[in-house]
Specification:
It is a multi-pass membrane protein. This is DMT family transporter. Keywords: Cell membrane, Membrane, Transmembrane, Transmembrane helix, Transport. Belongs to the drug/metabolite transporter (DMT) superfamily. Small multidrug resistance (SMR) (TC 2.A.7.1) family. The longest helix is centred in the middle third of the chain and has 24 residues. By secondary structure, the protein is mostly helical. It has one domain. The termini are close together. It is built from 4 helices and no strands.
Length: 106
């Protein structure tokens, strides 16, 4: 269950990062509220995950899921341009996240 909390926390990190961009500097109330809800949900789920997972594992996974997901959202929905070399490092980050998961007990 701790890994489900952690991955879900990472997904909510993607939500709040995306809605923060859509809030245009917190000037659009609906997206600002969604940003705050996403942040709270993400932090609560991260806190739940760290009850049983070490911080040294949970935090990098949380930020990694959020980072990779936010990159994908940026490319797909906002037209961000990413170089081939950057994609290589994104893939390495994803491999690292998966590697941490499969080499961690708990």
């Amino acid at each position: 269950m701790n890994w489900i909390y952690l991955i879900t926390a990472g997904l909510f990190e993607i939500v709040w990062a995306t809605t923060m961009k859509l809030s245009h500097g917190f000037s659009k109330l609906n997206f600002t509220v969604l940003t705050i809800i996403g942040m709270i949900a993400s932090f609560i789920l991260l806190a739940q995950a760290t009850k049983s997972l070490p911080l040294s594992i949970a935090y990098p996974i949380w930020t990694g899921v959020g980072a990779v997901g936010s990159i994908i959202v940026g490319v797909v929905f906002f037209g961000d341009k990413i170089s081939i070399l950057t994609w290589l490092f994104i893939i390495l980050l994803l491999i690292s996240i998966i590697g941490i998961k499969f080499t961690t007990k708990g």
